[in-house]
Write a structure and sequence with these properties.
The complex is a heterotrimer of chains A (763), B (260) and C (158). With 260 residues, chain B is an alpha+beta fold. Chain B contains ten helices and twelve strands. Chain B has three domains: 47 residues, no CATH class; 104 residues, 2-Layer Sandwich (Uridine Diphospho-n-acetylenolpyruvylglucosamine Reductase, domain 3); 96 residues, Enolase-like, domain 1, CATH 3.30.390. The chains are: A alpha+beta (763), B alpha+beta (260), C alpha+beta (158).
Chain lengths: 763, 260, 158
């Protein structure tokens, strides 16, 4: 890669000091508190019909302004999934429905002058429920006589294999080669099922939205969202008003991780504002976030992995059963990654594969998008299967991977036949092995006090945007004084994409990062962007930034040519000035910018859009070192090392933090974060007191390095980093625990109880 | 949601006691558990003006005021010396420093919560609680008494309880414990308290031979595990708790031995 | 009821509902750095100093704060500015929502223990959850600050 001045440098995030000093930047800081308080009465039943609902007494509470029930809302089915239209997620929701499909499903929308009034009124709403038998076991959901969505106006806009009369949200089988014949010919076949839970993103800022009518009769929505444009469309469909009447923007977002790729909270205050004409705000409690949010899809992934005695992996058969819960959000799409982003890791010598799935509706909290988006679940299964294979064959799991993994230049049949144009997975593995000291740590170490230390490894891949779908756009504008403004529709949710994209502008325009300001995202002013999800922003929107800068440079030259009275092709732009190549004349950027604002017909503002026909995978390797207390089953993560190939890290500091943050979430999923339902479908982990995300005492020491490849289709060679980083801890830690205990824990999280009871043969 | 009609800071214990006789009134501890409740209270009684925030050295005993924070106990050098560090071991895993700055001894002990770390340790230390009306009650009795409308003003701990060790098993570092175990080996014999069963802590007298050896400690652990009742909750099942109870008791006893 | 307290050095009198929590009182007073991340006293986002001691403002009655001094990040900007740049250098602020609580507790830590070890830092800040950063960058930032300050103390002319 050529020498760069800004790209590839660990620069501070543009918003960092403001955030660290606690400046008011978030939704509840920037919207007026004296608006209507909106809250939801939620269903206590997993499956019920509302026989009758009486809000008259509740409305008598002083300060109550409105209470809406299913009778009051438009009858337009929609999906909350923030996806490009037509959404693969079937349209199966109403704002409020007579049928309640999980514990927490909204029954009524309350709006009042104060929280106190709304809380009092909530207790006074009288609901007569006809309680129905719920579908709680996702194994028996398909073709269950009890239907989660019996309604006739349920609609799948895309052919995803959905059938509401079978509780099916999606179904598909794809394959290459004869997987059964290959498996039959294998010396060893590993055949197990791995189970992952509906883990919560647990971003620190819960879902929240503010709405008001602007002075000109348009609905103005300020929301903590990753997807302003999708929110505009979703609201338009749900509320039955034209998109032109809706204006959506986001302030700083207190974390998202995919949760805010679903329009979880927007529609409720929007409906209230539309009805009352008054400003309204909803702020989810943490409990609401835990029981009526948009968590990871619970999945059971069965892997049949066949190999010869030498450890050549020949065939892989993956079947995923995914639980989308009560609604379809991201159900048909997350599941695909469980196979398409796990099987291709073993493209090496794979002769045949098959990948099939069913996504079922059940009467539990609807799932959604969470970092990793199905790949996490699939990689836990496939990487664990490979580790079990290594154990069965007595081959070092690193050596087994070296023999079978995908390498640069290979075509990946299980990844839509995309080529691995840029793939440093082999270098990641070599480097990780080195910094981890794998050869010394892999043999189990007995500490002599009932404790043993052991290691595990896993590889991972993800995508960079959704190929042929995601659209990124950027507007770059020259302003007086010669500074640039970059306007985007992508959403910085803390990841630093505003800064990363500004670094690209600074690089392209040959200026310091401070000369670039960033604005986003606002549906009225931002150029169209699908939004920040699917690891797309750096790769897709970044390329749009690059294109826009190229165009802006040309405009600057055109403007300078007019000023200097010579052809543009005799000019060069240095960043500070435009000068004639022969050195006879020049004009400073400041003067040009000033000139552009007087008697000028040349635009110095470029908007470009980019979409990619491919989604180049980032790759990574993670290695875990644990200590097991053999008498209590307690697992202490000592050390986790990871080496990542995200193409060119545009900002190495931010790429590193992304990796560490993702690892920490992956560690939480592997060891701590659990979801239990009561036999009536209520979630027990409904707070951060019960749902245990890692504290800084729970994640050992992390070390992250990069082995960069150069992706020719990405900006400055970049791929993505946001999601892949969550994928390795579960399989790597599960293997380390097995090495230490002799127990393969195939249902996450790996609790001390599972380990100890497994060791004692009681599991 | 919590609703209070009024908030009062009584200036005498008698005043506080009189106020707390009304069923609709409530004595405020650290607020940490109370604020999660959905209830309406007539008068909340804040004991913060009654000078109950002191740790007093009575010579043979420590007298700890009900409003002393867990963080104060955790960082108190005298208590650390008395308990061979077990006081901090018992408290340092409770949520975080800010939480422990608020949580009070009175709230923790009066509450007699199943998950309580200090209840476990204080039982093994043969603590005595001082109630404004009922007077001195050994914690071993108090733990099983009904929630009377009395005011816990102090907890007294012996200054020389013997050798002490505290162990707990947690699924994450600052989570509620899966099991707690405190052992004290003193002149009057050996005592073991097991908490987070998940029921509230209970005290078991240990019948130990002269010296603690790996064998005698293991046997004691087995006896405690057989004797104590365990239950199941989100964090673990009864069988698991029983299994690790043996281990924690044995390790705690050996921990006491190591200090000899 | 009426309360009187010192907020960020300013004497204040206010009429409040008895059940009002300090966090809600502070936000109503314009101290918007104080954030709520949970309802169960687990996240540490709402950390403020009461008489110099870090507490969870979600678990303190505004009434109990009467007669005391309360400080939020709004009142400790200079003390925070001494070290938060080092965290920014790591990119560890990320979404920023947990930052004020974490910065407040770090201020408390550094006042109590000016030269903490890494383990002491982890233990003191264990009650401050962060879902973005994975914590390591926050630790590196504090460590870098301590190292820089240490160097400065050894050689004031450096």
């Amino acid at each position: 890669m050529p020498e760069t001045k800004t790209v590839g440098h660990a620069l501070r995030k543009k918003d960092s000091m403001g955030l660290l000093l606690g400046k008011p930047a978030f939704l509840c800081d920037v919207t007026p508190a004296d608006c209507l308080v909106v809250k939801l009465l939620r269903s206590p039943h997993a499956h019920a019909l509302i026989r009758s609902i009486d809000t008259s007494i509740a409305m008598k509470v002083p300060g109550m302004v409105a209470i809406y029930t299913y009778k009051d809302v438009p009858h337009n089915r929609f999906t909350n999934a923030g996806q490009t239209y037509p959404e693969p997620s079937p349209h199966d929701r109403l704002i409020l429905d007579q049928r309640l499909r999980f514990v927490g499903d909204p029954v009524a929308i309350l709006a009042g002058e104060s929280e106190k009034a709304v809380n009092r009124a909530m207790k006074l709403i009288k609901v007569d429920y006809e309680v129905l038998t719920p579908v709680l076991d996702f194994h028996t959901a398909k073709d269950n006589p009890i239907l989660v969505h019996p309604e006739e106006d349920w609609e799948a806009l895309c052919p995803v294999g959905a059938d509401n009369h079978r509780n099916l949200c999606a179904h598909e089988v794809c394959s290459q080669g004869d997987v059964e014949a290959e498996l039959a010919g294998c010396d060893v076949v590993i055949d197990h099922t791995w189970h992952t839970k509906a883990c919560q993103q647990a971003m620190m800022e819960t879902f929240r939205t503010y709405t008001e009518m602007d002075p000109f009769g348009r609905l103005h929505v300020i929301s903590s969202t990753q997807i302003v444009f999708h929110v505009r469309r979703i609201l338009s469909i749900a509320l039955g008003i034209p998109k032109s009447r809706i204006h959506v923007e986001k302030p700083r977002i207190g974390g998202g991780f995919g949760a805010k790729q679903t329009s979880v909270s927007e529609v409720y205050p929007a409906f209230v504002t539309l009805k009352t004409g008054r400003p309204a705000r909803i702020v989810f409690t943490r409990q609401e976030c835990q029981i009526a949010g948009s968590p990871r899809h619970e999945m059971e992934v069965r892997v049949r992995l066949g190999a010869d005695r030498q450890g050549n992996i020949r065939a892989m058969d993956v079947y995923t059963l995914s639980n989308t819960g009560a609604y379809s959000e991201h159900g048909p799409t997350t599941v695909g990654l469980s196979g398409h982003k796990s099987i291709p890791l073993y493209t090496g010598g794979l002769k045949a594969f098959r990948f099939g799935y069913d996504v079922v509706y059940t009467n539990v909290q609807a799932a959604g998008a969470y970092r990793g988006y199905g790949a996490t679940q699939g990689i836990f299964a496939v990487e664990s299967a490979v580790n079990e294979l290594a154990d069965r064959l007595g081959i070092d799991p690193v050596a087994l991977r070296e023999r079978n993994m995908v390498r640069q230049g290979m075509i990946m049949p299980a990844y839509y036949n995309e080529p691995a144009n840029a793939c440093a997975l082999d270098r990641c593995l070599t480097r990780c092995k080195e910094i981890f000291d794998w050869d010394h740590r892999f043999p189990v170490l007995d500490m002599g006090n009932g404790k043993v230390r052991a290691a595990g490894v896993a590889m991972a891949m993800q995508g960079s945007g959704i190929s042929g779908v995601d659209v990124g756009s950027a507007t770059v504008k020259l302003n007086d004084d010669g500074f640039y403004s970059l306007t985007i529709g992508a959403a910085d949710m803390g990841t630093g994409c505003d800064t990363i994209l500004a670094q690209m502008v600074a690089e392209c325009m040959d200026c310091p990062l401070d000369n670039v300001i960033v604005f986003g995202a606002d549906t009225d002013t931002s150029p169209y962007d699908s939004g920040s999800y699917a690891s797309s922003t750096t790769y897709v929107t970044g390329k749009a930034v690059e294109k826009a800068c190229t165009q802006l440079r040309e405009q600057i030259l055109t403007l300078a040519a007019e000023a200097l009275g010579c052809p543009a092709d005799e000019l060069e732009f240095t960043g500070q000035e435009v000068r004639r190549c022969d050195g006879t004349a020049s004009i400073s950027l400041v003067d040009l910018a000033t000139r552009s604002m007087c008697n000028n017909n040349t635009a110095v503002q470029a908007t470009c859009t980019h979409s990619s026909p491919m989604s180049p995978p980032p790759f990574m390797v993670g290695m875990a070192w644990i200590e097991l207390d053999k008498e209590t089953g307690a697992v202490t993560l000592l050390d986790y090392k990871a080496v990542v190939d995200c193409g060119t890290p545009i900002n190495p500091a931010l790429a590193r933090i992304q990796t560490e943050g993702g690892l920490c979430q992956g560690i939480g999923m592997a060891l701590y974060e659990d979801v239990h339902y009561t036999d009536t479908g209520r979630i027990l982990e409904d707070s951060l007191m019960q749902y245990k995300i890692p504290t800084r005492l729970d994640m050992g020491h992390l070390q992250v390095e990069f082995e960069s490849s150069y992706e020719p289709t990405g900006p400055f060679g970049a791929k993505s980093i946001g999601e892949i980083v969550i994928n390795t801890p579960a399989p790597a830690i599960a293997q380390a625990v097995y090495r230490a205990s002799g127990v393969w824990v195939r249902t996450l999280p790996i609790t001390p109880e599972k380990v100890l009871m497994g060791m004692q043969g009681k599991a | 949601m919590l609703t209070f009609r009024q908030y009062l800071r009584p200036q005498t214990l008698d005043e506080a006691y009189a106020l707390c006789q009304k069923r609709a009134n409530l004595v405020l501890g650290g607020m940490l558990w109370l604020k999660m409740q959905n209830r309406t209270v007539d008068t909340v009684i804040d004991l913060c003006d009654l000078g109950l925030d002191q740790v007093e050295d009575l010579g043979e005993e420590w007298r700890i005021g009900a409003m002393v924070s867990l963080r104060t106990l955790e960082t108190h050098p005298g208590l650390a010396a008395s308990t061979h560090g077990a006081m901090a071991d018992c408290l340092c895993h409770i949520v975080g420093v800010q939480f422990r700055n608020l949580a009070t001894v009175g709230g923790s002990i009066y509450g007699r919560f199943g998950f309580s770390d200090p209840l476990t340790l204080f039982l093994a230390l043969e603590a005595v609680v001082e109630l404004h009306h009922a007077g001195d009650v050994p914690l071993a009795d108090f733990v099983n008494q009904p929630y009377e409308r009395d005011i816990l003003t102090h907890v007294r701990l012996p200054k020389h309880p013997g050798r002490v060790a505290y162990l707990a098993q947690r699924n994450t570092a600052t989570d509620f414990p899966v099991l707690t175990c405190a052992v004290a080996v003193g002149e009057s014999g050996a005592r073991c308290a097991i908490g987070a069963r998940p029921m509230k802590a209970c005290l078991v007298k240990l019948d130990l031979p002269e010296s603690i050896t790996p064998e005698t400690a293991a046997a004691a652990g087995d006896r405690v595990a057989e004797q104590v009742t365990f239950g199941s909750n989100l964090r673990a099942g009864a069988d698991y708790r029983r299994a690790i109870c043996r281990v924690l008791v044995r390790r705690a006893l050996l921990g006491c031995k190591e200090e000899e | 009821m009426e309360i009187r307290l010192t907020l960020n050095g300013r004497q204040l009198r206010a009429e409040i509902e008895p059940a009002l929590l300090l966090i809600d009182f502070l936000r109503a007073q314009g101290c918007l750095s104080v954030k709520r991340g949970c309802e169960t006293a687990n996240c540490g986002l709402c950390t403020v100093l009461m008489d110099g001691v870090p507490v969870l403002s979600c678990s303190v009655l505004a009434a109990r704060a009467s007669g005391h001094s309360v400080q939020t990040l709004e009142g400790l900007q200079e003390e925070a500015e001494e070290f938060v740049g080092f965290i920014a250098d790591q990119g560890a602020e990320q979404c920023g929502f947990c930052n004020p609580g974490y910065v407040m507790n770090t201020i408390a830590l550094l006042r109590e223990n000016p030269n903490p070890t890494d383990d002491e830092i982890r233990a003191y800040l264990a009650g401050n959850l962060c879902r973005c950063s994975g914590y390591e960058g926050q630790l590196r930032g504090i460590r870098a600050f301590l190292n820089a300050r240490g160097t400065k103390e050894v050689n004031p002319h450096a």
